[in-house]
Amino acid sequence: MFLTRRFKHCPSCGGQVAYQVPADDNRERATCTVCAAIHYENPLNVVGTLPVWEEQVLLCKRAIEPRYGKWTLPAGFMELGETTAEGALRETDEEAGARIELQPLYCVHNVVQAGQVHFFYRARLLSPAFNPGPETLEARLFSEDEIPWDELAFRTVRETLVRFFEDRRRGQGYGLHSADIR
Amino acid sequence: MFLTRRFKHCPSCGGQVAYQVPADDNRERATCTVCAAIHYENPLNVVGTLPVWEEQVLLCKRAIEPRYGKWTLPAGFMELGETTAEGALRETDEEAGARIELQPLYCVHNVVQAGQVHFFYRARLLSPAFNPGPETLEARLFSEDEIPWDELAFRTVRETLVRFFEDRRRGQGYGLHSADIR
User: Fold this and answer.
1) Of A76, A88, A151, B163, which one is least surrounded by beta carbons within 10 A?
2) Which residues of A touch B16 (CB under 8 A)?
């Protein structure tokens, strides 16, 4: 679902909002009928990591909706005041309590219907001990043949894992992958 | 400047907003004192291209604030309903009226104080004829020694151009570059 048309009132003055195309624009925007302020709605970034320990990767079992009980790479919404890399590191700490060394950006996937861009950095786990936060039921390592492919929370997580195991088998480096999910 | 604390009223019900830390959170969020809705503020994406024609790159002279009259690569805010690549293509068309073939993602720069992530794709110009839109005073090609380094609009534009000319001189491919600007 699009996160569009979520404004009913103006965040500045509280007046009623109407969706209309401003004079110098070509899209409907939340426009205040009282103070005329225009409020934009844009895609959000989700930042996370693909943490690796020897032959295994770290997945987290979600303790929150959406996709409660499904497995994900540690990731969450990027916050103001941080970089994409800092956000990925923070989410890995918050969701898995995992100590990692961040490696290069590996995937930038567009999730068009959700209005999201998902970033995943490769990461080297510094320890196989985890301390999951309240958003995670369980954090554990999986070898490739143990990955719960039918129990993954998000298509971008699947896409990132598929690319990773392919690249690892091929043995010619990792590069950057992008997929568009609609 | 941070685009934070921009909510005074609740976009859902129009009630007064207070910035406070929700029970399951660790950051202050815009929380409605009437309906209790929480409204998040997150970084935004700016998407654009580095269009190349033979030895030259395309820059646009801005017809809007901020940085009126300064030179930029064609770029703008990513919109809901599009991918980062589609947004980059759209902005190149809107700002320069340039016909391009998109190439791989080249730069992902974090502009922390602005709460923005800037994406630049390399692009091959299909024609050296441009048709600038209302946000652009002039669109023209520059060889490396003509770049108006002191008249560039944004640090991410400078960073992208510096990396590009370095990579081109080195002749070993372009890869992905990231810079953190605070």
Assistant:
1) A151
2) 14
Cβ contact B83–A13 (<8 Å): no
pLDDT, tens digit, for every residue of A117-171?
Answer: 999 999 999 999 999 999 999 999 999 999 999 999 999 999 999 999 999 999 9
Give which of A133, A168, A171 is closest to A56, Cα–Cα. Answer: A168
- The total of other beta-carbon atoms located within 10 Å of residue A97's CB is 16
Distance from CA of A78 to the nearest CA of B (A): 7
How far is residue A165's CA from residue B29's CA, in Å, rounded to a whole number? 39
Averaged pLDDT, B48-54: 98
pLDDT at site B3: 55
Contact residues on chain B for A30, CB-CB shorter than 8 A: 11
Check if the beta carbon of residue A76 is closer than 8 Å to that of residue A47.
yes
**B4 confidence band (pLDDT: 50, 70, 90):** low
Which among A10, A42, A84 has the least Cβ separation from residue B110? A84
| Model-level ipTM above the cut of 0.85 | yes
The answer to whether the CB atoms of A11 and B10 lie below 8 A apart is: yes
Whether residue B24 has pLDDT greater than 90: no
Task: Please report residues of B whose CB lies closer than 8 A to that of A134.
Answer: 24
**Is the bond preceding residue B134 a cis peptide, omega within 30 degrees?**
no
For chain A, the first-to-last Cα distance in angstroms comes to 11
| Interface touch B78/A41, C-beta < 8 Å | no
Beta pairing, strands B116-125 & B44-53: parallel
Structure confidence at residue A2 as a pLDDT band (50, 70, 90): low
Q: Show residues of chain A in contact with B4, CB under 8 Å.
A: 80
Report d(CA A59, CA B22) in Å as an integer. 27
What does the mean pLDDT of chain B come to?
A: 96
Q: What angle do CA A46, A113, A63 make, to 5 degrees?
A: 50
